[in-house]
Description:
By secondary structure, this protein is mainly alpha-helical. About 75% of the residues lie in helices and about 0% in strands. α1 crosses α5.
Amino acid sequence: MKRTGRISYHLCRLLLGGVFVWAGAIKALDVPVFAGQVAAYQLLPYAWNYAVAAALPYVELLAGILLLINIRIKPATLLVGLLNAVFIVVLLSVLARGLNIDCGCFGPDAGTTPLQALGRDAVLLALAVAIYRQQDRYVRSPVSPPED
């Protein structure tokens, strides 16, 4: 069972990291378009839309890369979990206000509804929580130097 758990842990880590690298890369390729998608949420002042659109892709890329290369897993999964929690709250706000917008998660041509994005983000949040909780069990910690 331990081997199966280790394999599923690493597959989940790679999947989550890959999703965030993909999402971040697509957004980083066309920041002005992504800023328009951020503005469609109608939550931020105009000037902040571009700031969020300029920064968020690189935060997603960093977290995804850390997950993919298996470094700083706990901080990376904490960041991914926090991002997904924020995304979920924002999407619930969109649904409550009746906005019919593309979530902008995977570029302008993805055509994802807020409800579809909400379901996907809930799954990604569950993956982040599982990875965070299982990291100590399935990752060997580096050997500590001997104490003098």
